[in-house]
């Protein structure tokens, strides 16, 4: 294997040496043009391929290990789950499990697995496989790497027969119908000595596609699974192609090298508007962005940790900071309007649970008001217009930001500017994502950018603000967000967890959001839209989740890729809860608009570059001319 | 990136000094010994860097996902992070001897595997770019030295210096903008290229065009300038006058005497500046998403995958050191003046 | 009338040498052009606060459109936050030049000290120092600089340190070679015979003789340091303060804001051209200076 690779490398080197100079020399324009033609020919042949550009690298394709967005997105289409969030509005429905019931004490769950399910290699898929997967996670710590929390409260898992699965839990668990655990085939995985090992390809799976090839930092190839219980997808192959640089992915979409791409920036999205072959999808996102204000971090047992500025313990100061952040302008400038203005903690996409401040609760942006609040609270202005805290020290705050994240890079200077206007000196500190995470977990911050993707069930994001979620003495063991620790909030949290009446639970969740708004330990900045684009000359469309304003990629399920419809192959399917398909419902997509030729700019850029080269060359010509005269001996 | 070394001929021609006394064997042994010391330094530096970089690794492995303290303690023990420092160093040495560079935190695979996978694209890119740059530089340098002061000399030297002065990544960005749609802008190969060898090779060559051109544009200048100046020096040498006096034509003098002698310092330079070319590969690979070691290094830094970072730095630096020892030895073998003494 | 003291004599001799050097330098047009460019650019950088308003760098005050092309009000268009690219380019010269100069001084200082010590002291010190120098010369300096700037907090100081600490070896080798040549001269031997200690020999004889070379090397190295700064900033290791932009951070913003894709040439070109011009100017100056000091290279 390795020697073959070496041989390949050498041969490539030789061939590149031959073709390289040819193509590199300006005269040989013919060479590059040959390739696009070859590509078109290729496209005319079967099979149909959906090529998806992704900008995040796959961490692992081991379903027990992978935690990245891209990794889980791929695995979700390769391995089915007990239940899946439906396409319509992201409510849990059965997938491998046909139905389920709960005991009176909510501690025993009995799932009925669909009969006659088959793995992609033809072996039967039964409750035994599910039981093996869960039990493996209970007995092997490595198997708990990615999704361990779901089974943390499992007492036992049994499969009395091929279609019955019984799970006993130690305490009532609200997430039993949304276990995000890929089910793996026992007949393959039980033979593996090391569960964390890189899987072999093709991977035997149960989802709409199976993984056949993975090239690190390049691509993951999947082919349609004939044995998928909902039926074989229309597309024969699904390729996820990694682009480290999002611009390159957009160019690739324009060139027809890929068919679908997401996570676009507003600039990229706008630059695609002029392309008649590209359809844009502006979707609601399940994510919120926020600024954390450290109210005095402490561990789970209440010992103060970190080095947050103690002045921020004053709620008046936090309120003034929140008042001095203009979220409206941020939505405009950061997301160029492709986002929704800040409201409550739960993103508006989840209509039921979303809350929006009204009347007095609402903090309208006003620098005068923020200044007045600070004056009133006794923060005098010192030299350089920087206010002094209660101990007479100037108010210097650090703002932790994720380097290379658009919102942080763009919003940081704005927040610095506004707070400077109210007499608070902010230093933006962009660091790697992990550093932000570590520093915030240890309470080593004053202000910090943060944000979470909420699930259809709000439990997880709500739990982030509880006392119990603060870290232990070593600064580990919890995933705190703003270090809010409030008895009343915690009480409401416990209450909503045990409330089985949905309407009542919604009320409690809204009350909790009101509290979060009041305490001002975090400032919601807004909800970025998910911007996606695909080529309509190769694909008719994709089922969106949720059906209204939903996304194609990174769904909580496999609908988008499963229902991908090649151009000319009829309407995009819409999936009903019972597993049936409604045809025709046009996928909601914002159509291409505006025609603006951005190429003129590029041409000018090139001309400019050439001019500079000529100019400098000219300088040397002048210099050399003098030299020749004196060079003669 | 032509980042740190200056484009002056004197600074560029850092030819190893001829050994004083002692035979070839002793010279070679000294060089190898020096290389080994450098390697040891790299290994220690790799470990220190890895230790000094602050941050709780285990915490970062779980952030964004629910994790219990027990899960974290398990992970910590698995990674050996709870042992004293000297024990970790011994562990590190022992495993290094067995070709084991630890396990990547982010990718959950052995670092050695990851590096091996990324090695070939970088070898390919750096190798091809260096070969083209050396060829181009030698040719242009020879021509401009031979026609010193001509329009060709002035223009080619001017262009070389201009390209040398621009940041690699900027050049790459301009190329991206200028060739929009002509070449693939990222990656190594299309995913739907037929698996047969010829199609794959052509596709890789196609993908390589932009990164290679960028890298060549920035690094060829040094070879051209050094070739030019060492050829000029040779041309003033007495033996050339003698050769001309013997009635040899200019062309013959150039080809038989001047060029071969001037070639030596330039070729040595190829190895000495390999570190610089690799630095150039980091930004080039970043701009063109070329899946090589440079991109891996940068990504490892970005996500703070410490074992991976340690691995790439040790491998990159180690490779450059070994190449340099080879260059020194080759120089000794090739240079008639040194050999004779 | 007293005879001029030896010190005055030395100064007079140096003055004459300087004048001769300047005549040599002035006879090379490229050197003069480079110097002229540098003077203009440095003046612009110093005068930036006088001729423009720094307030224009504050995003909250920005009035321009998002990445708008050049027009009457913004001769070089605007960046993503609506700030004038012309203003940004002008202010960026301050940080870029500052980093270039200070990092070079640091690296040259380290290089000079190590080079002189290695040449002046005997075998073991020399061998040890040169081994370290070779080590730093060989390993990819950019990779090391990236690692250093990641470990330390982001900012101008870190960038300066990262560049200075990784770029000194070539200076050290040059200085060492020069020192060896000088120490071989008879007057050094005489000085030693007369009882001059190490310190005396180094500061009174070696250093003055080595300094011109160091000066040339500094000129050439500033350009490299500026390019290195732009590279580190481009990779996201630069100063994050929006009020202190550099050409590298501008290019990084242009890259992150998809200026290539949007065809925003007014955003992409100015910082890169500025870097190229400044680096070229330093290179032209340095080469001319080198020709003055090194007759072998003298082309005129």
Summarize the structure.
The complex is a heterotrimer of chains A (633), B (341) and C (300). By secondary structure, chain A is α+β, with helices and mostly antiparallel strands.
Structure overview:
The complex is a heterotrimer of chains A (633), B (341) and C (300). In chain A, 33% of the residues lie in helices and 19% in strands. By secondary structure, chain A is an alpha+beta fold. The longest helix of chain A has 33 residues, at 599-631. Chain A is globular and about 75 Å long. Chain B has helices at residues 9-12, 24-52, 57-62, 69-79, 85-97, 111-146, 151-165, 168-178, 197-235, 238-245, 250-272, 274-287, 293-303, 306-334, 336-340. In chain B, α6 (111-146) crosses α9 (197-235). Chain C is an all-alpha fold and 300 residues long. Chain C has twelve helices and no strands. Chain C is elongated and about 75 Å long. The relative contact order of chain C is 0.14. The model of chain C has no long low-confidence stretch (mean pLDDT 84). Chain C: Keywords: Cell membrane, Membrane, Transmembrane, Transmembrane helix, Transport. Chain C: It is a multi-pass membrane protein.
Give a topology summary.
The complex is a heterotrimer of chains A (633), B (341) and C (300).
Chain A: H1 2-24, H2 30-44, E1 49-54, H3 69-78, E2 83-85, E3 92-94, E4 97-102, E5 108-113, E6 117-118, E7 124-125, H4 127-139, H5 148-151, E8 154-161, E9 164-169, H6 186-189, E10 209-215, E11 219-224, E12 237-242, H7 246-254, E13 260-261, H8 266-271, E14 278-283, E15 287-293, H9 315-323, H10 327-335, E16 339-341, H11 367-376, E17 396-402, H12 406-421, E18 425-431, H13 433-441, E19 447-453, H14 459-463, H15 487-498, H16 502-519, E20 522-528, E21 530-535, E22 539-541, H17 559-562, E23 565-566, E24 574-575, E25 581-582, H18 599-631
Parallel strand pairs in A: 1-12, 1-13, 17-18, 17-19
Antiparallel strand pairs in A: 2-3, 4-5, 5-9, 6-7, 8-9, 10-11, 11-12, 13-21, 14-21, 15-19, 15-20, 16-20, 22-23, 24-25
Chain B: H1 9-12, H2 24-52, H3 57-62, H4 69-79, H5 85-97, H6 111-146, H7 151-165, H8 168-178, H9 197-235, H10 238-245, H11 250-272, H12 274-287, H13 293-303, H14 306-334, H15 336-340
Chain C: H1 6-26, H2 29-51, H3 85-120, H4 123-138, H5 141-151, H6 156-166, H7 169-183, H8 186-193, H9 198-234, H10 247-256, H11 259-262, H12 265-293
Helix pairs in contact in C: 1-12, 2-3, 2-12, 3-4, 3-6, 3-7, 3-9, 3-12, 4-7, 5-6, 6-9, 7-9, 9-10, 9-12, 10-12
């Amino acid at each position: 294997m390795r020697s073959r690779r070496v041989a390949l490398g050498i041969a490539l080197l030789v061939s590149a040496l031959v073709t390289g100079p040819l193509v590199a020399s300006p005269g040989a324009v013919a060479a590059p043009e040959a390739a696009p033609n070859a590509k078109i020919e290729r496209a005319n042949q079967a099979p149909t391929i959906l090529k998806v550009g992704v900008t995040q690298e796959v961490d692992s394709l081991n379903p027990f290990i992978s935690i990245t967005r891209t990794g889980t997105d791929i695995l979700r289409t390769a391995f089915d789950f007990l239940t899946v969030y439906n396409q319509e509005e992201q409510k849990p429905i059965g997938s491998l499990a046909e139905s389920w019931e709960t005991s009176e004490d909510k501690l025993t769950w009995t799932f009925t697995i669909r009969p006659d399910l088959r793995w992609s290699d033809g072996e039967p898929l039964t409750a035994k496989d599910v039981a093996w997967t869960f039990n493996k996670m209970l007995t092997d710590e490595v198997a708990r790497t990615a999704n361990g929390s779901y089974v943390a409260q499992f007492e036992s898992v049994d499969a009395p027969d091929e279609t019955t699965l019984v799970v006993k839990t130690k305490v009532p668990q609200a997430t039993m119908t949304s276990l995000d655990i890929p089910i793996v085939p026992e007949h393959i995985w039980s033979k593996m000595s090391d569960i964390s090992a890189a899987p072999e390809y093709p991977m035997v799976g149960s989802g709409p596609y199976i993984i056949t090839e993975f090239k690190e930092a390049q691509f993951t190839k999947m082919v349609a699974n004939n044995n998928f219980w909902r039926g074989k997808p229309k597309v024969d192959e699904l390729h996820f192609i990694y682009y480290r640089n999002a611009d390159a992915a957009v160019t690739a979409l324009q060139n027809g090298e890929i068919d679908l791409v997401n996570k676009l920036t507003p600039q990229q999205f706008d630059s695609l508007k002029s392309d008649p072959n590209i359809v844009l999808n502006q979707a609601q996102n399940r994510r919120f962005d926020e600024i954390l204000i450290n109210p005095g971090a402490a561990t789970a047992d209440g010992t103060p940790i970190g080095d947050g500025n103690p002045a921020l313990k004053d709620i008046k100061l936090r309120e003034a900071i929140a008042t001095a952040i203009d979220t409206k302008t941020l939505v405009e400038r950061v997301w160029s309007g492709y986002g929704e203005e800040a409201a409550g903690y739960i993103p508006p996409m989840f209509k039921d649970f979303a809350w929006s401040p009204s009347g007095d609760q609402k903090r309208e942006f006003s620098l005068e008001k923020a200044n007045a609040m600070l004056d009133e609270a006794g923060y005098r202005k010192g030299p350089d217009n920087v206010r002094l805290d209660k101990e007479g020290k100037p108010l210097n705050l650090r703002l932790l930001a994720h380097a290379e994240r658009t919102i942080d890079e763009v919003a940081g200077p704005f927040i610095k500017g506004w707070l400077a206007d109210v007499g608070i000196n902010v230093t933006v500190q962009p660091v790697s994502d992990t550093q932000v995470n570590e520093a915030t977990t240890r309470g080593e911050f004053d202000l910090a950018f943060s944000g979470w993707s909420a699930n259809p069930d709000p439990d997880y994001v709500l739990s982030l603000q509880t006392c119990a979620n603060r870290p232990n003495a070593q600064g580990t063991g919890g995933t705190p967000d703003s270090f809010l620790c409030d008895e009343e909030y915690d009480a409401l949290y416990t209450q909503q967890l045990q409330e089985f009446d949905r309407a009542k639970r919604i009320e409690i969740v809204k009350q909790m959001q009101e509290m979060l708004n009041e305490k001002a330990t975090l400032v919601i900045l807004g909800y970025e839209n998910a911007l996606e684009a695909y080529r309509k000359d190769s694909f008719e469309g994709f089922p969106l989740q949720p059906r209204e304003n939903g996304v194609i990629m990174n769904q909580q399920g496999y609908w988008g890729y499963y229902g991908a419809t090649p151009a000319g192959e009829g309407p995009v399917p819409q999936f009903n809860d019972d597993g049936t398909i409604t045809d025709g419902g046009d996928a909601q997509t914002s159509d291409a608009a505006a025609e603006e030729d951005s190429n003129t700019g590029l041409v000018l850029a090139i001309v400019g570059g050439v001019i500079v080269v000529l100019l400098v060359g000219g300088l040397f010509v002048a210099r050399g001319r003098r030299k020749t005269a004196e060079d003669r001996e | 990136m032509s980042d740190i070394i200056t484009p002056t001929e004197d600074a560029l021609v850092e030819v190893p000094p001829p050994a004083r006394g002692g035979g070839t064997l002793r010279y070679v042994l000294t060089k190898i010994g020096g290389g080994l010391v450098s390697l040891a330094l790299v290994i220690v530096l790799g470990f220190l860097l890895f230790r000094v970089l602050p941050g709780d690794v285990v915490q970062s492995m779980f952030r964004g996902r629910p994790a219990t303290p027990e899960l974290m303690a398990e992970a910590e023990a698995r990674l050996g992070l709870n042992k004293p420092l000297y024990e970790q160093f011994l562990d590190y040495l022992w495993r290094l001897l067995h070709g084991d560079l630890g396990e990547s935190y982010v990718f959950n695979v052995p670092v050695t595997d990851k590096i091996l996978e990324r090695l070939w694209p970088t070898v390919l890119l750096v190798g091809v770019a260096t070969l083209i740059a050396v060829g181009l530089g030698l040719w242009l340098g020879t021509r401009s030295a031979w026609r010193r002061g001509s329009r060709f000399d002035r223009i080619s030297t001017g262009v070389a210096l201009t390209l040398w002065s621009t940041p690699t990544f900027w050049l790459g960005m301009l190329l991206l903008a200028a060739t929009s749609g002509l070449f693939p802008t990222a990656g190594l190969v299309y995913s739907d290229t037929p698996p047969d060898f010829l199609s794959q090779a052509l596709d890789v060559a196609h993908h390589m065009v932009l990164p290679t051109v960028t890298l060549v544009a920035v690094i060829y200048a040094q070879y051209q300038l050094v070739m030019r100046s060492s050829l000029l020096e040779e041309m003033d040498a007495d033996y050339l006058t003698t050769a001309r006096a013997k009635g040899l034509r200019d062309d013959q003098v150039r080809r038989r005497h001047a060029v071969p002698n001037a070639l030596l310092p330039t070729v040595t330079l190829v190895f000495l500046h390999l570190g610089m070319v690799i630095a150039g590969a980091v930004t080039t690979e970043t701009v063109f998403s070329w899946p090589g070691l440079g991109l891996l290094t940068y990504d490892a830094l970005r996500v703070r995958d410490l074992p991976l970072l340690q691995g790439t730095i040790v491998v990159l630096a180690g490779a450059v050191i070994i190449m340099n020892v080879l260059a020194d030895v080759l120089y000794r073998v090739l240079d008639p003046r040194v050999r004779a003494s | 009338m007293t005879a001029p003291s030896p010190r005055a004599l030395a100064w007079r001799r140096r003055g004459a040498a300087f004048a001769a050097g300047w005549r040599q330098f002035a006879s090379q047009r490229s050197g003069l052009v480079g110097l002229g460019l540098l003077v203009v650019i440095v003046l612009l950088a110093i005068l930036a606060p006088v001729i423009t308003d720094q307030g224009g760098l504050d995003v909250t005050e920005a009035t321009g459109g998002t990445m708008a092309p050049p027009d009457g009000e913004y001769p070089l268009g605007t960046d993503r936050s609506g700030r004038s690219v012309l203003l940004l380019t002008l202010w960026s010269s301050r940080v870029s030049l500052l980093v270039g100069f200070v990092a070079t001084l640091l690296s040259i200082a380290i290089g000079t000290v190590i080079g002189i010590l290695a040449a002046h002291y005997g075998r073991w010190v020399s061998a040890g120092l040169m081994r370290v120098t070779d080590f730093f010369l060989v390993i990819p300096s950019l990779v090391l600089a990236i690692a250093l700037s990641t470990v330390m907090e982001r900012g101008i100081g870190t960038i300066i340190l990262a560049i200075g600490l990784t770029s000194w070896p070539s200076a050290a080798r040059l200085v060492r070679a020069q020192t060896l040549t000088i120490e071989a001269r008879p007057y050094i031997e005489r000085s030693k015979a007369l009882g001059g200690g190490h310190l005396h020999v180094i500061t009174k004889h070696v250093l003055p003789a080595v300094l011109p070379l160091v000066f040339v090397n500094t000129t050439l190295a500033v350009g490299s340091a500026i390019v290195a700064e732009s590279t580190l900033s481009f990779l996201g290791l630069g100063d994050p303060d929006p009020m202190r932009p550099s050409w590298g951070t501008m290019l990084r913003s242009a890259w992150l804001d998809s200026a290539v894709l949007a065809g925003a040439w007014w955003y992409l070109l100015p910082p890169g051209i500025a870097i190229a011009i400044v680096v070229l100017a330093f290179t032209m100056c340095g080469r001319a200076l080198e020709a003055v000091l090194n007759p072998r290279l003298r082309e005129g």
